[in-house]
Amino acid sequence: MHSLGPVLRVMGLLLMVFSLAYLMPIASALIFADGTVALFLDAMAICFAGGGVLWALTRRARRELQARDGFLLVTLAWVMMAAIATVPLMLAIPGLSFTDAFFETMSGLTTTGATVLVGLEKLPPSINLWRHELNWLGGMGIIVLAVAILPLLGVGGMQLFKAETPGPMKDAKLTARITDTAKALWLVYFAITVVCILCLRLVGMNWLDAICHAFAALSLGGFSTYDASVGQFDSPAIEFVLIVFMMLAAMNFATHFIAWSGRSLRAYWTDSEAKALVALIVSSILVCATYLWVVGTYGEWMTALRHVAFNLVSIATDCGFVSVDYDKWPIFVPLWMLFLSCITVSSGSTGGGIKMVRTLILAKQGLRELQRLIHPRVVNPIRIGATAIPDQIAGAVLGFIFLYALTVGELTFFLVASGLDFISAFTAIIACINNAGPGLNVVGPAQNFQSLTDFQTWICSLAMLAGRLEIFTLVVLFTPYFWKK
Amino acid sequence: MKIIILGAGQVGASVAESLVSEANDITVVDTDTARLAQLQDRFDLRTVTGNAASPSTLRQAGAEDADLLIAVTQSDQTNLCACRIAKSLFNLPTRIARVRSADYVEHPELLEEANFAVDFSICPEQIVTDYIVKLIEFPEALQVLEFADGLVSLVAVRAFEGGPLVGHPLKDLRKHIPQVDARIAAVYRRDKPIIPHADTVIEPGDEVFCLAATKGIRKVMRELRRMDKPVKRVMIVGGGNIGYRLARAIENDYQVKLIDHGRERTGWLAENLQNTLVLRGDATDERLLEEENVGDMDLFLSLTNDDENNIMAALLAKRMGAGRVVSLINRRAYADLLQGGQIDIAISPAQTSIGTLLAHVRRGDVAAVHSLRRGAAEALEVVAHGDAQSSQVVGRRIDQLPVIEGAAIAAIVRHVPISETPVYTHDLGEERQYKVIIAHHDTVIEQDDHVIVFVVSKHLVPKVEKLFQVGIGFF
């Protein structure tokens, strides 16, 4: 490994740019006059100064960054921004420990949406806006990460993202240059967010709530301004709007871009991930709603459908909004929702977990092996859409899924060892590694991560980071190969 | 006629062979001297060595006063380029090119006078593929040919014990299936042609050529043999051009297995075929065939480039219980040796595909030519031009025509005014209707009739052409 200088220099620049993010809460603090202006100015100054010092110290270390530096840079970016973003929270909420503040900002930036704060509605509006902005910025970061950076690093078969891009995408405006691609995708992200804000305003939210919830929905973060989350509004219209935008956010933003630039919905039809996503979610909703109706949790099928639709979409897309306490439902449904959260969202979206494209590859790999038992000489490449996936990528995907399962198992053991019951431990890790949000039991939808010990909170923070960075990016830093010169 | 053939491959050689016997001046161009020498040894023709797409080679081949250019080299680009040069520099009147790539085929405007100036394009692989697809649709037939845009079909069927007509004279056909007007055009008994008469008795083992409107063809076949069960499982050996096209064409209607030995090729095939099971291995390896249950296959097709491999794979599959085996065989001697024995159908790719090409070479107005029995016999679709004065056929009854021993008029396709109710109609989307008239001795040929003539030997073709040629009086 080369010297860390150049990586830290870029980090310094990144932090200085990140300090601009404080402008939004500062503006809101002025509008709402909630007395947090000075606090945010302090935080902004700290952030800018911290970045500036880092940059000044390493400014001589000019070197072209290599792909290998990317692993470190990406990990550092998430950790350091989360650390520095704790400042306003710690200043505004007396008694908040760094552990909890870090969990909260990490949850924001990784778009997880799990929270340790209670009494959200009593917080100054600007602090809530700050939390949601972290969600939204995290979403932006992930889109670029997924579309441009991870494929470059070759993490877990993400190269196939390029191969998977459906037909029209190859010749369309999605450019070869990372910066252009990022700009195009951000534009789509921004545009959909604006539409979402307007829709939420129309169905009855006030401007602050609309902005906050739109940020959380598009980034599939799932922070809310209320302890009861979306359940606070008890409005089918709001739930419906959020379902639509969560589904959109769970699709590949490149597909949105193509549909938008080509003015045609054909892009969705050629995107095999989007098709599988919709099919899986719609069928799950129907089955689970019918199940709840049959076992008598809800007397009416329509009521069951409404609650299942919202909560299932929210968890399956790794968003994390909650409208009812689904922990009280028969365990089958919440567990199925958490299972979906592992596999459902598309690559190139803001969601987490294994991603649909890997799920498809895994399923097809399984079928392929079965076919091979009957026809030993068969030549049957894995096909996603019309494209055959090279064996090397299929191997990387299998490796990823193995590592993912291993990580879930390991971290669950840590939580169990520290005294948490199994269901809480397992679902907390699943919810964190998929960046979904609430788990079950102690960390369930009606509670939050407040009750965890510091050690457990750190484990959950680690799970969020690992899940967000597709595990490989983080784990590779702990291998000897990475540090050898 | 002066003809230049570019390319001395399988197609080029077969075209040369067919045309050289019809008193044409033929020049063959190829880059491979050895192949040309071989061709020159066998036939009376001239050869030129050189790049077919270069003006100097074409000039050397006599492009300046040639009547017809047939560009059938391996390369589409060479063929297209040669046609353009022939048009621009030598103003050669008729240019035929072999164009295989779908990329070109999808853009017919490229072949126009202003672009590549190709008068007719042919794709031999596609023709062979279509031919095999027909065989799969009609599993009882040895060969299925279509005339007049598919309105009339000619099928070759081997008569079997148990067919209602077998052992009976031909005139009984009318009694058995009065609703279908069919005609037995020829019967081959122990490979010798018999011109059938009303009293000819069909024997088991006879190869019978019968012609009827396409709708009624199955009923006619049922007279000659019991029907096989429809084909469901197909195994193809060889994933070359023909094997791939065939698999593409039938994979959604049948269960298809495709065997090829090339590592890269199988990968490519597996990527491009959606519903075909692609297997890598050697088709003459009986373990592979056994693993893949060759015994349960309704149809086994060996379609590689190599005659010997095709034959061995087909024989092996037959021994292991495959239903019907079909093999591509380029060499006439092999085909004659094996067809009807262990191998059910031997297909000569070159003979199958050059029919369309020959139609453009023939004098008179020939709409279609089909080679039968791997080139020994032919079925022609000739348009009768002129009137009773200028033509020897128009306005005459069939029994008034001069008799050519070995040639028989099998049917007439006539287009009729829309008001008349035809026997069989075929809507072409225009204000036209066609009527199929199965030829009888008293049928009168009219102007512009498409006459389908069956000739048992190719040597008779010029006589038929001459009969249909319009006399001087026409002009």
Description:
The complex is a heterodimer of chains A (485) and B (475). A two-stranded antiparallel sheet of chain A has the order 1-2. Chain A has 485 residues and is mainly α. In chain A, helix 1 runs antiparallel to helix 3 (37-58). Among the domains of chain A are: 1-96, no CATH class; 387-483, no CATH class. Chain A has helices at 5-18, 23-32, 37-58, 67-92, 98-109, 125-153, 160-164, 167-171, 178-202, 207-218, 236-249, 253-262, 266-270, 272-295, 301-316, 332-343, 356-374, 391-417, 422-433, 454-468, 472-475, 480-483; strands spanning 382-384, 387-389. Chain A is built from 22 helices and two strands. The longest helix of chain A has 29 residues, at 125-153. Chain B has 475 residues and is of the alpha/beta class. Helices cover 29% and strands 26% of the residues of chain B. Chain B has helices spanning 10-20, 33-42, 55-60, 76-90, 102-105, 124-137, 172-176, 217-224, 241-250, 263-272, 286-291, 307-319, 332-338, 349-361, 461-468; strands at residues 2-6, 25-30, 46-49, 68-71, 94-98, 120-122, 141-147, 152-158, 182-189, 192-194, 207-213, 233-237, 255-260, 277-280, 299-302, 324-328, 345-347, 366-372, 377-383, 407-416, 433-438, 450-455. Chain B is globular, with a radius of gyration of 23 Å. Residues 421-431 of chain B have low confidence and may be disordered. The interface between A and B is small, with 9 and 13 residues.
